[in-house]
Write a structure and sequence with these properties.
30% of the residues lie in helices and 39% in strands. By secondary structure, it is α+β, with helices and mostly antiparallel strands.
């Protein structure tokens, strides 16, 4: 199964406690983090958060002093926990000539995929895999 959700990109100071403060702000608002990833960049941090309610998540983060840099639609797909499952998803998207610009794992064996053409990526995963994509 797959559906579209939103990924929020949040700027963080790259120092102890900043990530905890962001997670606490989301939790205090009663919002479950469905998936997340983060990377330090030049003395700053970049946090990606997947939630079912991006508006409330944005409000909670901004109330706590964080800046939400971007909000983008992402494809969230169930993925089997076995070798090659992610490769199959990426191959099907690549065969549709779509560039992936973000991916990470989410709760409950799901993969989050951001792409330049999210609709085309969704369509690629909606089709049954062919013998060529099941190599």
């Amino acid at each position: 199964m797959q559906n579209l959700m939103k990924d929020l990109t949040i700027s963080l100071d790259d120092r102890p406690g900043t990530l905890a403060k962001a997670a606490e702000a989301i939790a205090k608002a009663g919002i479950n983090i469905e998936g997340a990833t983060g990377i330090p960049r030049n003395g700053k941090g970049e946090l990606h958060v997947l939630t079912k309610d991006p508006t409330a998540t944005r409000r909670a983060l901004e109330s706590a002093g964080f800046k939400v840099e971007t909000e983008q639609p992402v494809l969230v797909a169930d993925v089997e926990d076995k070798p090659g499952a992610g490769a199959d998803i990426f191959r099907r998207i690549a065969d549709a000539n779509v560039n992936v610009n973000l991916f990470y794992l989410a709760t409950n064996n799901r993969i989050v995929v951001g792409a330049e053409n999210i609709q085309k990526a969704t369509e690629a995963l909606s089709k049954q895999p062919t013998a060529a994509t099941r190599r």
